[in-house]
From TrEMBL:
SUPFAM superfamilies: ABC transporter transmembrane region (SSF90123), P-loop containing nucleoside triphosphate hydrolases (SSF52540). This is ABC transporter ATP-binding protein. The chain crosses the membrane at residues 33-54, 66-89, 148-168, 257-279, 291-315. The keyword NAD does not apply. Coiled coil: none annotated. It comes from Nonomuraea spiralis. InterPro entries: AAA+_ATPase (IPR003593), ABC1_TM_dom (IPR011527), ABC1_TM_sf (IPR036640), ABC_transporter-like_ATP-bd (IPR003439), ABC_transporter-like_CS (IPR017871), P-loop_NTPase (IPR027417), Type_1_exporter (IPR039421). It is a multi-pass membrane protein. It comes from the Bacteria.
Length: 612
């Protein structure tokens, strides 16, 4: 495990986090929190009340005055019942506060995550570790209130017993209280170390989850079986598990040793008190009731102090983890927000990339090196080039998933960094190379292209027809309502198997999403015909050509037959535009495009020749 220590937030930051946490808890479950506080108070005062009542009973018996005993016995019964009821009520309320706060915290967290406008954060391991810890914190944020309540309850118990102890021995009371200070400092240090350890093993646990997911879902099931990767992946996963457990074990050992030391010290202090009380009783300075009270008070104060110290340490740990939640919530949208946002006009002239340089981070190599390109309104520009040339990167910049490292992208002269990203994206339709196959119904899988169409069956059907997938969807067991997943059972019949589409059918479904956004100003098609059979490719190609006619579009395809009729073909090589023109012009130029085209065409020509 290479990851080093992480700078942990200081007192002020934690105090602000605590205030935020308290605010979250109070907003999420105000009535339940109030009830929880009330039963906690009842739970806190009952041990003290019981100790006093027991003392009075014992003193009454010792002095032979039996008159008040029935009343005291009844009071003990009532207090005991109250204590039991408070314990159970607190347990329910604690769970309910936890659920309500968790719901709110998850809502806050995922609202923030979905509000991230760029992609860079999702590609940062440190961010993913932070997100995991934030999710952990959002799963049980009620623990914060739980530990706070536990500390408050113990404080009340301590205060109650301390009053009683002071009457018997002020010196011993001071000794008892002072002994809690080193314990608290040690526990706080341990909680920091624990959170630090959790941060260090974050990547290890994510890798473990990655291997576990690979082995337990369909994503990699074929390759794992064919390549016989089961043992390889399992061994790697177990190595990660062992590494994480080793770190946890080390921490647990350290904690156990420290806790044992603290418990030993507490036992010595209690022993001293007991010896003193017995000697004092023997000399007649304490009554039998006093000794009983003293013993109960020592046990009560020590237990409560220990709970307070643990609760303090636990709250500290929870706050350190909650800090990840606070950081994510407050981290803003990711890409710089325009101070004075400009309304994005409908495209009329075109989109210009002006000396665009881009790399994914300072540590990564340049992907685009000074790209100058104009995508005229109403025209189709095809991007071609070898694998890794930067074609997909360029369209990610057009959608503003990243900002150019240098240079600018202008939409009718407006820098796209000056408009809200959502306004820009509302004007774009796209089929990405790595489009998502959602485990949703066929209808939802198309509607994600434009959620305003979700209830418009006619629009969805039309888009599916245009993408050539309507018939396949209509023939599914529940038509468009069929769940396209084998991981979840269909709602209509929990015993039935789910349905999966073929690769080409999924591709058409992704195209249907794009057809829903046909009216948008810019259409981006990254390998739109990948996975389609020859006939489907031809058919889809014709449809897309019709769709693109008179519209602004950018098409990427390695099948040069699909891009040859584009208005402009742009060859990207080494991150720069090396050739640009129509198919005929580039063929005449006899450069990279002509060579690529000739190589592809020769495959088909040979086939034809062989068939003749
Ligand atoms: N998210 C990323 N983080 C870091 N590097 C990346 C990322 N995405 C792509 N790259 C790198 O950027 C370069 C260009 O990738 P890009 O996907 O733009 O190429 P492409 O021309 O679309 O390739 P292909 O034809 O194979 O789809 C590649 O070297 C790739 O490794």
């Amino acid at each position: 495990m290479k990851r080093g220590r992480r700078e942990q937030p200081g007192f002020r930051v934690l105090a602000r986090g605590a205030a935020r946490g308290a605010g979250l808890v109070c907003r999420a479950a105000p009535a339940h929190v109030a009830a929880y506080v009330a039963v906690t108070l009842v739970g806190a005062v009952t041990p003290v009340a019981l100790a006093w009542l027991t003392k009075d009973v014992l003193d009454g018996i010792a002095h032979g005055s039996a008159a008040g005993l029935p009343g005291l016995a009844a009071a003990i019964a009532v207090v005991t019942t109250l204590a039991a009821a408070a314990t159970h009520a607190a347990e329910y309320l604690r769970g309910e506060v936890d659920r309500r706060v968790s719901l709110r915290a998850k809502d806050e967290l995922f609202t923030a995550v979905c509000g991230f406008t760029g992609l860079a954060r999702f590609e940062s391991p440190a961010f993913l570790d932070r997100l995991r810890m934030a999710q952990q914190s959002a799963s049980n944020p009620g623990r914060l209130i739980d530990t706070a309540m536990s500390a408050a309850r113990s404080l009340i118990t301590v205060a109650g017993f301390v009053g009683s102890l002071l009457l018997i021995s002020p010196v011993f009371t001071a000794l008892l209280l002072l002994s809690a200070i080193p314990a608290l400092l040690i526990e706080l240090r341990l909680s920091r170390q624990r959170v630090d350890m959790m941060w260090r093993i974050g990547p290890v646990e994510r890798k473990e989850m990655f291997y576990a997911r690979l082995m337990s879902t369909t994503d990699a099931a074929k390759e794992i079986r064919l390549f016989d990767l089961g043992a390889f992946l399992r061994v790697r996963m177990l190595a990660e598990v062992r590494a994480a457990y080793a770190a946890r074990r080390g921490m647990d050992r350290r904690e156990s040793a420290v806790q044992a030391g603290l418990a030993g010290a507490a036992a010595i202090v209690a022993g001293i008190g007991l010896v003193w009380a017995i000697l004092a009783a023997a000399q007649g300075r304490l009554s039998v009731g006093d000794v009983s009270m003293f013993v109960a008070a020592i046990a009560g104060v020590q237990a409560a102090l220990s709970t307070m110290v643990s609760a303090g340490a636990m709250a500290h740990e929870q706050l350190l983890i909650f800090q990840h939640h606070v950081t994510i919530i407050g981290s803003g949208p990711g890409l710089p927000v325009p101070a004075d946002p400009v309304a994005l006009p409908a495209l009329r002239r075109g989109i210009e990339l002006r000396d665009v340089w881009f790399r994914y981070s300072d540590e990564h190599p340049w992907v685009l090196r000074g790209v100058d390109l104009f995508i005229p309104y109403g025209r189709t520009v095809a991007l071609v080039g070898r694998n890794g040339a930067g074609k997909s990167t360029l369209i990610k910049l057009l959608c503003r998933f990243y900002d150019p490292t240098r240079g600018a992208i202008l939409w009718d002269g407006v820098d796209i960094r000056d408009v809200p990203p959502e306004a820009l994206r509302a004007r774009i339709g796209a089929v990405f190379q790595d489009f998502v196959s959602y485990e949703l119904t066929a209808r939802d899988n198309i509607a994600v292209g434009d959620l305003t169409a979700a209830e418009d069956q006619e629009r969805l059907r039309l888009a599916a027809e245009e993408a050539g997938v309507h018939e396949a969807l209509a023939a599914l067991p529940y038509g468009y309502e069929t769940l396209l997943s084998r991981d979840f059972a269909p709602e209509q019949d929990e015993e039935a198997d789910g349905v999966l589409l073929s690769g080409g059918q999924w591709q058409r479904l992704a195209l249907a999403r794009a057809f829903l956004r046909r009216e948008n100003d810019l259409m981006i098609l990254d390998e739109p015909s990948a996975g389609l059979d020859a006939e489907a490719e031809y058919e889809v190609h014709n449809r897309l050509t019709r769709l693109r006619a008179g519209r602004t579009s950018v098409v990427i395809s390695h099948r040069l037959g699909a891009t040859r009729d584009a208005d402009t073909i742009v060859v990207l090589s080494g991150g720069a535009v090396t050739e640009q023109g129509t198919h005929a012009e580039l063929r005449a130029l006899d450069g990279t495009y002509a060579a690529l085209f000739a190589r592809q065409a020769s495959g088909y020509v040979d086939d034809l020749a062989a068939r003749r």
